[in-house]
Design a protein that fits this description.
The structure is a homodimer. With about 190 residues, chain A is mostly helical. Chain A has a domain of about 130 residues: Tetracycline Repressor, domain 2 (Orthogonal Bundle), CATH 1.10.357.10. Chain A is about 70% helix and about 0% strand. Chain A is elongated, with a radius of gyration of 18 Å. The N and C termini of chain A lie far apart (about 40 Å). At the A-B interface, helix 6, helix 7, helix 8 and helix 9 of A face helix 6, helix 7, helix 8 and helix 9 of B. The structure holds a DNA duplex (18 and 18 nucleotides).
DNA sequence: GTCTATACAAAGATAGAC
DNA sequence: GTCTATCTTTGTATAGAC
């Protein structure tokens, strides 16, 4: 992706994490980047095109990158901690997970974006599920219920806590993270 | 609250749960209810007024009502199950918790609404926290970590799962609910 | 690839009649 | 309390020059 194009996508991603897809405009982008609206329309004729590219970039830059990195790590514990921390490094203060943001607005998204969001949601669950299964198999994790239901719960709790961190001054995200570790890692201590 | 006024507030609440605060318009409301935009402006001059009334109605109709009902129940287990189920009865298919929806859009809300949303977020956590403490005290619940962190995790997981249910055809919410019960209720069986 | 100018529709809001 | 009419601003999008 060319520089300018990538710059627009990155700014749009930040706006989605901060304000949501429906709540940012090409004017917001143009002022933040320092170009005109028309220029952005040149690169992404419709907002839907831009939204789709944001989704595609999440898939490639976050998911594929994480997948590769995870395969190089040795223990399930390392993998879990990598995934959880990696996730947080992508989110600044006042932002939430872009996938959560798009899920919250799901009903107003164009169909093409709905499809991408559903796909990303399923993928992140699958990845975590694999790690949990590995941990159960080698005895480093311990929990009741299926890996799939546990994976959903962990992801939902983690991202939900991010949303709560907007209104509660506490360090809620880390509190929840600790709580998660306590519940599934056998020898975990805070 | 008068009939028409309440009808407007109820419709607005549904729209927030479905589409989000920023994504519904007075036009949407007017068409859904069958009155003109001007009439809605008569009852709620600014959208902010309507948004605030929606928040206030959640506080009174959901929170105060739940508080009263909970005080009449006997065991922590009953109270927990009541709260969790009560919550779900308020949410139709394709909707999410209105507080979650407002949290997701937090950065674009007027200050008055930010305050209300922060208040509601704190309140729901406090209520659940009290129930968890009771359950720990009488031995019916069992978990590691503080009641406060557990309460945050449960709420975050529960509401997060609602967002996921938009994109995953599974009965995710019930799966997560079961997972929660398994982890804190001593003698729980699916 | 970027700009100015412009079109068009939608959103929030108000004035004034009934 | 509800309507018609109108205003203003914003959002999305296009045309055409440089």
């Amino acid at each position: 992706m060319k520089n300018r194009k990538e710059q627009i996508v990155n700014t749009a991603t930040t706006f989605i994490k901060k304000y949501g897809y429906d709540s940012f405009s090409y004017k917001d982008l143009s002022e933040s980047i320092g170009i005109t609206k028309a220029t952005i329309h040149h690169h992404f004729p419709k907002k839907e095109d831009l939204g789709l590219t944001v989704c595609e970039q999440i898939r490639v830059k976050i998911f594929l990158a994480a997948e590769k990195k995870i395969s190089q790590l040795n223990t399930p514990k390392e993998k879990l901690e990598y995934v959880m921390n990696k996730f947080l490094t992508e989110i600044e203060k006042g932002e939430i997970c872009p996938i959560s943001s798009l899920q919250a607005e799901y009903n107003i998204l164009p169909n093409s974006m709905k499809e991408m969001v559903a796909n990303l949601s399923e993928k992140e669950n699958t990845y975590l599920c694999e790690i949990l299964k590995e941990g159960l198999a080698d005895g480093s994790f311990q929990f009741s219920g299926s890996p799939r239901s546990m994976a959903i719960m962990i992801i939902a709790a983690y991202k939900g806590s991010l949303q709560y961190s907007r209104t509660m001054d506490d360090n809620i995200v880390n509190i929840v993270l600790e709580q998660i570790y306590k519940q599934i890692i056998k020898d975990h201590k805070a």
